[in-house]
């Protein structure tokens, strides 16, 4: 288990995120191989300033790892989120037990003994057994099971054995230089670059980060939003990204739950978090339920184990 702590206290100071940090984290979440120069151009900062910020985010326990994996598109697996109130005595103990399941990747513990369990299933046939396991183990009597909406894209060709070897060496070090990858895999740097470009172009690999926006004096909230009948979800989500860009980490929508989506927000202070909630309450949603994030845990799952066999 790899745990992201709620706060990290340095001997001199406490790491507090700001708006630029969130921009960097969101960019790295989409592509953890972005260069310092590319990030500097995106944020109008110097390369050295970006380097210092990323190092500080690592030292502060906010970035836990730079990750590379075969993508959902490449392996055609199912992304599900199961959430609800737990009747278990210890949320940490439940999280640790759940994390032993090969399909569980990420668990968020929120206030009120509320759990979010992220799983990646090989296909839909695993859903019934998986949801039953999570419900029993987490002591969630009335779980909500959401299948996260991912656009279907056909791939021109599958991942090759060389692709798998590249992703294996990048699995928890996705920012590794091309020359180091070439040495690890035993191929030329030119071939590595060509294979990486192909995987990125065809969305066959995911380059992301394991991160938690939770740190001392930072506040994370997951909002459950129910839309009124007839509301266009795409335009609503885009509007939220536009209006709350400094605070929204990501939105998730679910193919099996109509008129419902969740947004994960970050704020520097409790008063800022309260203002986000108050503003969202004026948007005319049918329902809005906030869940305050307490901690998050990442776990190896079957895709990571698959890479180790390549």
Overview of the structural elements:
By secondary structure, the chain is an alpha+beta fold. The chain folds into four domains: 2-66, Winged helix-like DNA-binding domain superfamily/Winged helix DNA-binding domain (Arc Repressor Mutant, subunit A); 72-152 and 297-303, 2-Layer Sandwich (Alpha-Beta Plaits); 161-209, Winged helix-like DNA-binding domain superfamily/Winged helix DNA-binding domain (Arc Repressor Mutant, subunit A, Orthogonal Bundle), CATH 1.10.10.10; 219-293, Alpha-Beta Plaits. The protein is 38% helix and 25% strand. Strand 4 (104-110) and strand 5 form a beta hairpin. Helix 2 packs across helix 3 (47-59) and helix 7 packs across helix 8. It starts with a strand and ends with a helix.
User: Spans with pLDDT under 50 lasting ≥5 residues?
Assistant: 1-14
Distance from N terminus to C terminus (CA atoms, Å) equals: 22 Å
The proportion of residues forming helix, as a percent range, comes to 25-40%
State the CATH class of the largest domain: Alpha Beta
**From N to C, what is the helix and strand string?**
EHHHEHEHEEHEHHHEEHEEHEH
What's the structural domain tally? 4
Gyration radius, in Å: 20 Å
What is the assigned CATH homologous superfamily of the largest domain? Answer: Lrp/AsnC effector binding domain/regulation of amino acid metabolism (RAM) domain
What form results from the Cα inertia axes? globular
Helix segment count? 12
Mean pLDDT: 91
Beta-strand percentage range: 25-35%
**Total number of β-strand segments?**
11
- CATH topology call of the largest domain: Alpha-Beta Plaits
Secondary-structure arrangement, i.e. CATH architecture of the largest domain: 2-Layer Sandwich
Structural class: alpha+beta
Main sheet? Answer: 9 strands, antiparallel
């Amino acid at each position: 288990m790899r745990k992201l702590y709620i706060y990290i206290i340095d001997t001199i100071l406490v790491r507090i995120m700001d708006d630029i940090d969130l921009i960097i984290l969101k960019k790295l979440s989409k592509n953890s191989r972005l260069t310092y120069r590319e990030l500097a151009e995106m944020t109008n900062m110097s390369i050295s300033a970006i380097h210092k910020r990323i190092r500080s985010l690592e030292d502060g326990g906010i970035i836990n790892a730079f990750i590379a994996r075969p993508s959902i598109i490449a392996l055609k697996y199912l992304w599900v989120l199961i959430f609800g109130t737990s009747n278990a005595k210890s949320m940490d103990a439940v999280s640790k037990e759940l994390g032993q399941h090969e399909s569980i990747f990420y668990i968020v513990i929120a206030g009120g003994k509320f759990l979010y369990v992220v799983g990646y299933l090989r296909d839909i046939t695993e859903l019934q057994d998986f949801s039953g396991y999570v419900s029993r183990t987490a002591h969630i009597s009335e779980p909500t099971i959401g299948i996260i909406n991912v656009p279907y894209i056909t791939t021109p060709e599958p991942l090759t054995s060389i692709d798998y070897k590249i992703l294996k060496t990048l699995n928890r070090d996705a920012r590794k230089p091309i020359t180091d990858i070439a040495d690890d895999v035993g191929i030329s740097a030119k071939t590595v670059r060509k294979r990486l470009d192909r995987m990125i172009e065809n969305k066959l690999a995911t380059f992301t980060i394991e991160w938690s926006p939770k740190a001392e004096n930072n506040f994370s909230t997951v909002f459950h939003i129910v839309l009124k009948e007839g509301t266009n979800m795409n335009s609503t989500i885009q509007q939220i990204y536009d209006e709350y860009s400094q605070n929204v980490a990501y939105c998730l929508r679910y193919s099996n739950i109509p008129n419902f989506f969740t947004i994960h927000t970050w704020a520097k202070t409790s008063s800022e978090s309260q203002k986000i909630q108050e503003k969202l309450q004026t948007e005319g949603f049918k329902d809005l339920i906030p869940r305050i994030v307490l901690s998050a845990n990442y776990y190896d799952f079957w895709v990571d184990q698959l890479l180790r066999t390549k």
